[in-house]
Amino acid sequence: MFLAINPIAFAIGPLQVHWYGIILGTAALVGLMLAIREGKRFGMNPDFFMDLVLLGVPSAIVGARIYYVAFKWEDYKDNLSEIIKVWHGGIAIYGALIGAIIAALIYVRRKGYSFWRIADICAPGLIVGQAIGRWGNFMNQEAHGGPVSESFLRSSLHLPDFIVNQMYIDGQYYHPTFLYESLWNVVGLLLLFWLRRRPFLRAGELFMSYFIWYSIGRFFVEGLRTDSLDFTGPQWLASLMNGLWSPMRWMGFESGFMTYGGNVRISQLLAVLIVIAAFILMAVRRKTGAASVKYADAIEPVGGSAGESRSGREEAVQAEPAAPAAEKTAEGSPPSEQEQEGDKDKSGKIGEPGSLQ
């Protein structure tokens, strides 16, 4: 019999620190570092992204819980105190994204920036955070797929022992769906890195590309899972979802059972709608001129507290007045050659506004 990895990393007295929390914290930190690094290319202050994370993470947790409870209201309506007990399980990644996006939209607008420009910078951080965060599910032996054989994990997937052993739960091996989604997101991260250096990319399109890539992968991985939120929908919708998932069957995969007895997985339906909406939004923004700004263009505040939003470099650009030459001209005597050279030296200390580092 294999021993599962202890989900508790260490304890300090009565306080237990779980691997799940450590992994999620690491995911948020890595995502933050990626955003800060890319933000520096546009002269943005790292504190802007740190504050964004401090606001976004709790908003994501709240959104994830509200999303889950909303779709499982029957389990909570008679026991409202259970709603806040997140440690008992029950959060959803799409709810986390909704919560984080709402908080970011408010914060970014208050700082005077375009939401689309900041969302583009944060997109790689979001997907790498999800790639790392899925390993928290691995430590907890949750969010797995349906039953498989040990030979499938060892001989077909060639997984190392520590993963195979952790997928042995209550006498049965299961699909490591956490691993499938994590690897899909790593490939997506590389894709986003490539896309953001392409000259054709417009504002908001890297963020939309993140949603498209993640949702496609989530659609197929979700069909393997046995803990999906589901509902009973019309037969044509269930047939459509099954038809779209059929390539997985051609590759020898079997769908996991419906947890709550429905015929449509909510995450699969939402994934399809997000992909369609993202493509439509990109097309509309280009057609109407709303996406005229390119990803590589300088980022400037568009309103709100613009003075507080500017980076130290932008403030330096505005700090040096060009008054000496004008004052002498106003007195009626042209500046001497030495004075002109002095003015040139002063102006040469200042970088060109809007240039990228």
From TrEMBL:
User: What species is this protein from?
Assistant: Paenibacillus konkukensis
**What are the top taxonomic ranks of the organism?**
Bacteria, Bacillati, Bacillota, Bacilli, Bacillales
Top-rank lineage group of the source organism = Bacteria
Recorded GO molecular functions are: glycosyltransferase activity
Q: What is its EC number?
A: 2.5.1.145
Q: In which residues is a 1,2-diacyl-sn-glycero-3-phospho-(1'-sn-glycerol) bound?
A: 134
Q: Which UniProt keywords are given for this protein, alphabetically ordered?
A: Cell membrane, Glycosyltransferase, Membrane, Transferase, Transmembrane, Transmembrane helix
- Name listed for the protein in its UniProt record: Phosphatidylglycerol--prolipoprotein diacylglyceryl transferase
Q: Where is the region Disordered?
A: 302-357
